[in-house]
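Slide 14.
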Amino acid sequence: MQLPYFIKTPAVAIIGENCYTSLIENLNYTDVPCIRYTISKGLGLGIVAGGAIVKVPQIIKIMQAKSAKGVSFSSYVLETLACVISLAYNIRQHNPLSTYGETFFVTFQNLVILALMLYYTGKSAQAVVVLSAFLVLGNVLSRTSDFTQLDGTVVTTAMVSQSALALLQASTIPINLFSKVPQIIENYKNGSTGQLSAFTVFNYFAGSLARVYTTMTEVDDIIILSGFLLSTLFNCILAMQMGLYWNSGATPAPVSAKKGKASTEAKKKTKKLD
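Slide 15: predicted structure.
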């Protein structure tokens, strides 16, 4: 089966010439490796597209409330740190964009959320410092430069060596896990998820689950796979908390307010009697 050129070109770019020929032109639906690869690519692109908006509801919720109550600042700092390291590692490894593209969007949205959290607590100067620190870190980790030696050999140099970056990438596993812990504790203590966005939490869980599949299919890297497996577990806990505390809000104390009102009225009555 032949598809129009404007459809064929992006399809070949996504799944490759061999799989396109096998699945589309030859209709060979017994080609399991190509089917798995195509599913992985589809999931990967879906995750990247979802990553572009996954934190937008959280941003809107904070801006509407002019507060980030219930959202853990330390969780977002740790998560952003892990994202910056992972982004640099994947870029340096030349991994397919479909396997990590959402990390770029999530990093950007996390920086916006961190800035809002600091801004709404009157710490605008700290917001500038935090944003600048993450941007500089990302630039240092990902930057490489090529130069040609006298014998014509091209040598790539970097401010941070590939082996050091691999160690940092391995460190993102505990960082990612610890980034979830403060939020889980915050939810448990409050008996509520506060300004935490349900859309963000459930999409994070679904995305990390899909990432396990795409990583197993497209990237032969046990460090990245281990990170996604453990991240899925902790995102599952957050999703369960979101369901558990669905109708719970921060419980302001209306009782104490009523008591205060009652005592005020009692005082007024006493004054009248006097």
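Speaker note: Confidence is low (pLDDT under 50) at residues 250-259, 269-274.
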